[in-house]
Amino acid sequence: MTLKTFKQLREEVQSVTEVEELFDLIEDVIEGIAKDNNVDSEFIWEDLESVPDEELIEVAAWQRKEGKNPEGGLNAKGIAAYRRENPGSKLQMAVTTKPSKLKPGSKAANRRKSFCARMGGMKRRLTSAKTARDPDSRINKALRKWNC
After folding, report:
1. Which residue among 3, 10, 40, 102 has the highest number of C-beta atoms inside a 10 angstrom radius?
2. What are the residue boundaries of the structural domains of the chain, listed by start?
3. What CA–CA distance (Å, rounded) separates 109 from 101?
4. Interatomic CA distance for residues 41 and 19, integer angstroms
5. Rounded Cα distance, 63 and 77, in Å
């Protein structure tokens, strides 16, 4: 058994209370639907149990496989989903042009240079040694895609 830090325990407790609050909200909604339709709430719960979890929980495309490019980063569908979920976002497609083909100092060259510096630092500091060495990790795929 591993000991958890205070921060980990606090985050776990917060997530548990959030889940409990969400469940209470769902119970209230189910009871309201049952009351409006003159049926027992247990009948609605039984119906919900037959529905797969994936259909009950809608997750944005940028967090699912459909929104991710297999070669790294997000595809157009993922970027569009991210922009919908985060209004005002300026997320753009990756600069995949080879550095030798980019005009030095151009907007695309500067975006690429900034991304490579930022993500290279994340790779060194925020990933495990195993992830850093894994050619199929999301961070390594993204760095390859941006020609870093």
Report:
1. 102
2. 8-56, 59-92, 94-148
3. 9
4. 20
5. 11
